[in-house]
Amino acid sequence: MTTVSMPLKAAAPLTGAVFKWLAIVMFAMLAVLFSGVSHADQTALSKEQAARQAEQPGNNAPVWRAASSGESFVTQAKGRETGVLINKSGEVWREIRNDRIIQYGGWLVSLAFLAIMAVYLLKGPIKLPEKRTGRLIERFTSAERLAHWTMAFSFVALGTTGLLLMFGKYVVAPVLGLTAFSWIAILCKNVHNFVGPLFSVSIIVFFVMYVKDNLPEKNDMLWLKKAGGLFGHVPAGRFNMGEKVWFWGGVTALGIAVSVTGYILDFPNFDQVRLTMQQAHVVHATAAIVFISMALGHIYIGSIGMEGALEAMRDGYVDETWAKAHHEDWYNDIKAGKVPAVRSKQGAEVMGSQVLS
């Protein structure tokens, strides 16, 4: 049998030609196949595919619809609300914070500050009506002053950091830039979180020490009617009605409100749900804004707004003239021997012969 072999150089072109013609035929068949599907058929196929995917449990559309509804999914994380991917109340909280608390809170703090500045520029500080006698009365013991200054400095730290966290995006960031503000915000957050518990404890100590002298007295309503002496002199006990409003409404009521809500926000590991955190923040921010606005008036009167007021809390004692002018009932009780002019051993050592007798 005779075998005829084809040279390799002749076989290579033949093989390439065969593959070329096969490729042309395949592309032609695909073109005919797809050209036979009309636009109406393609639309029908798309609708059918969409309907089929809508019925499938793993389809993205129904999953995200369920997620946005606030439903809980099965997850490996353990805890309350761990299966809730999107919290619907979060947007409501965001609108309340940005559109109401920040807007109206900013106006309240600004108006309180402007009102105090107007009083200072138009009326000036309250001066003593007579010269000082040099005879002293111990108004605050060292323990009372320690409780007051602990609460005061922690309050200033919390108020300053809180205002920066709430309004810094609109006031600080445009001036210093976002990078610098981010560092300031991180510092403020940590200071706020760690000083908060100290402030809450100082409120309890302050309340125990001062509550006995902030109970209602006979001239309290008269003090309010005469606007704290603006329309005539009003005798007052150790604390007048304005100081009592600050004690009960500010330190006690608002202090408890910001402390309780602060603990809820400070310790999310207590497993509270997000709605509780959002509600706590609304109460916390609102109470803090009112608290700060009231504190501006208290700080003004206790520093540059009244002659001798800062000395009372700084040194612990006041002059006889100051006591008679601002707290006449308290002064009369001291003169009658009902209340001691010296309330501590340390005060007697410091004042010496200057003690009112």
Automatic annotation (TrEMBL):
Q: Which family does it belong to?
A: Belongs to the formate dehydrogenase gamma subunit family.
Every copy of the Cytochrome b561 bacterial/Ni-hydrogenase domain together lies at: 139-313
Question: What is the designated name of this protein?
Answer: Formate dehydrogenase subunit gamma
Looking up InterPro entries in the UniProt record yields: Cyt_b561_bac/Ni-Hgenase, Di-haem_cyt_TM, FDH_cytochrome_b556_subunit, Formate_DH_gsu
Localization, per the record, is: Cell membrane
This protein's record includes keyword Iron: yes
Ranked from the top, the taxonomy reads:
Bacteria, Pseudomonadati, Pseudomonadota, Betaproteobacteria, Burkholderiales
Q: Does the keyword Transmembrane apply?
A: yes
Cofactor(s) the protein needs: heme
Membrane topology category: Multi-pass membrane protein
The gene behind this protein is fdhC
